[in-house]
Amino acid sequence: MLIAEQLMLLLLDPERGELEVRRDATDPDRLAAAALLLDLAEQRNLSHRNGHVAFNRRLPSGHPLLVIAGDALGGAGPGLPLASALDLIETRTRPTSRVLLEGLYRRDVLHRQRRPKWWPLAAWTYPLRSSQARNEALTIMRNGAPRSPLRAHGLLLLIDSAGRLASFLDAASHARASASLLALDHRHDADDPSDALLGSLRTTLLDE
Q1: Cβ–Cβ under 8 Å, residues 93 and 99
Q2: What is the pTM of this model?
Q3: Which residue(s) pair with 201 in the sheet?
Q4: How far does the chain reach from its first CA to its final CA, in angstroms?
Q5: Which residues does residue 125 pair with via DSSP β-bridges, in sequence order?
Q6: Residue 119 has what pLDDT?
Q7: Is residue 188 classed as helix, strand or coil in its secondary structure?
Q8: Are 30 and 94 in contact (CB under 8 A)?
Q9: What's the number of CA atoms in the CB half-sphere (13 Å) around residue 169?
Q10: Bigger pLDDT: 151 or 79?
Q11: CATH of the domain at 155
């Protein structure tokens, strides 16, 4: 499952089927675009240096949204600023979060329910159908993933950017997670490419 799909499951209210982010936090579509960028990096199709990224296809992306995101970045050339990369992904995959939710619905992870025609917001809600998929995302975010630290730390970063970190962690875990996220602010040029990318991504999202 994509990092972006796991993010949607964590942001989704399981019963109401609506994405929940804090009012002053990053928009769900922007968060989804950032998660897709991390998915490309996890597949080793994205390189990062000093806040700039380049798409270099090494492995087949396997998911239609990643193909679209990769083509968007590949056409922009190397050395693309991270904020511009997020703009491209979000524009080409719009409405990013709903496309991800629709994909999860087609795989029977979510239900889909139509709202009344007079409802001013989105026409559909996506109540949770499979608790297993959401629980797996929760476990990765809370306990880490030794084989994929980029996924675990990325989910933490994005949930924090949505203003929802306290919803999932107890006080002690929240303090540890906050400290690890603050440490990323000084890892833009870290030897670990995952830490460097996460540090730049965190700074980019905070600056918007």
Answers
A1: yes
A2: 0.93
A3: none
A4: 28
A5: 113
A6: 64
A7: coil
A8: no
A9: 21
A10: 151
A11: 1.10.3630.10
